[in-house]
Write a structure and sequence with these properties.
This protein is an alpha/beta fold. About 55% of the residues lie in helices and about 10% in strands. Helix 6 packs parallel to helix 12.
Length: about 425
């Protein structure tokens, strides 16, 4: 399956739905930046970059596009991470004119999300020149933004243009390449959660997309040694698969095939980092570490001879929100009040389908297997606990789920152990 097989066409699927992803151009390979002028017919382009990504290729982009680049938003954050928040949106909007017809980002996840969000709000198109194979959101129609201190994924549109030149991508920092690899490894967890939710909640699952994402995850798993060596072919394959996963999310108009409990935990660490004004890892790095955690949670569940469910009083839950999420506690509480999941008793379903639940959990690799996959790209497994500490990690296992309205193994784990561990 190639990218060209699943973009710019109707896919009449065996699942009963017709899928479509309208990305016009995806180019990945050595020297493809030179093709940029022919890949967009925009006349008044707003270029967006930060001081790191700008240094990689912005001068060449300006040379290639000439006076078609009308304005430029250059984020200067120093050593701080660029945050896709209200201030970033306003900065980009301040560079727009009534003639702006295209927003072109140079960067990775955050730059891409900002460009998707602003272009969608202003009803114009966007594109991204990838500078690191660090995450799978290049082609997705979602934009993960942080508004009012909370991480919110907005439905926007996929870029019209995605360009990944391996001459640029292979120079990315090793931790960013490893983060992209780990983001894909996290699909073992996400897919497992998707199948579990289909069983427990009757959630829609597309077998075509499920199998495609699983196949590509297995393919990336075997790339680790070549990625460590920065082999151009491996970097290209990783980038293409990261883009393909994003296409799958756009095909279904949901992030479900690529985001489950491991992403909920990664969001938890990012949000609590912002709340506490403390550092956090790259998104894909957090996903990798969190995949080890969620695999361990599945193992603890599978080890039970018979499920015993426990409840947590509402006041105890709200107290946990206040302790962990501080000024954002009311937003978390409001989200869960609206979702209504705490008002649903799923224990009869669990009891009826317990053997099927265990069978699904058994399909996910073990924590030790996931850990070895990460070690293959030189993850420092001890760095995770040093960064966040045992208490914060334990809190995430119980309360990270509350940042989203989506079922995952985190809910099953909470129903079984929340009353004991909270």
């Amino acid at each position: 399956m190639k990218l060209s097989d699943i973009i710019n066409r109707d896919l009449v699927c065996a699942c009963g739905r017709t899928h479509r992803c309208d990305i016009k151009s995806v180019r990945v390979g050595q020297g493809v930046l030179a093709e940029l002028p022919a890949l967009t017919d925009a006349k008044s382009i707003l270029l967006v970059s930060d001081q790191n990504t700008d240094a990689l290729c912005a001068d060449r982009v300006r040379t290639l596009l000439g006076d078609r680049i009308a304005t430029h938003q250059l984020f200067r954050t120093g050593k701080e991470l660029l945050v896709p928040d209200e201030a970033a949106v306003k900065a980009v909007e301040a560079q727009m004119t009534d003639k702006t017809d295209f927003i072109l980002g140079i960067g990775s996840g955050v730059i891409n999300d900002i460009c998707k969000y602003v272009s969608y709000q202003h009803k114009i198109t966007c594109g991204i020149i990838a500078t690191a194979p660090s995450m799978d959101g290049f082609a997705s129609s979602g934009a993960a933004m942080i508004f009012d201190g909370m991480k919110v994924t907005f439905t926007t549109h996929a870029p019209d243009l995605i360009l990944g030149d391996t001459d640029i991508l292979r120079t990315a920092p090793a931790d960013m390449i490893a983060a992209g690899y780990a983001d894909i490894i996290g699909k073992y967890s996400a897919l497992n959660d998707w199948k579990l939710s289909q069983l427990i909640n009757g959630e829609y699952l597309c077998p075509f997309v499920y199998d495609l994402v699983l196949d590509k995850t297995n393919e990336v798993r075997n790339l680790a040694p070549a990625l460590v060596r920065r082999e151009p072919a491996a970097i290209a394959t990783l980038t293409e698969i990261l883009i393909m996963i994003g296409v799958c999310l756009t095909l279904l108009s949901t992030t479900r095939p690529g985001s489950g409990s491991e992403h909920h935990l990664s969001h938890y660490f990012e949000i609590t980092g912002l709340i506490l004004d403390q550092p956090y890892f790259l998104h894909g790095t957090d996903v990798g570490y969190s995949t080890v955690v969620t695999a361990g949670m599945r193992e603890r569940i599978r080890a039970m001879k018979a499920p015993e469910f426990h409840t947590v009083p509402a006041e105890k839950r709200l107290a946990a929100y206040r302790r962990i999420y501080r000024h954002c506690a009311s937003e978390v509480a409001a989200l869960q009040e609206q979702a209504g999941r705490y008002n649903k008793d799923t224990t009869p379903v669990y009891a009826e389908k317990w053997q099927e639940v265990v069978a699904i959990l058994n399909e996910c690799p073990t924590a030790k297997e996931i850990e070895q996959m990460l070690l293959d790209v030189h993850f420092d497994m001890s760095a995770f606990e040093r960064m966040y500490g045992k208490e914060r990690i334990a809190d995430g296992m119980l309360w990270g789920k509350d940042l989203k309205d989506r079922y995952s193994v985190l809910w099953l784990y909470f129903d079984l152990f929340g009353g004991l561990d909270a």
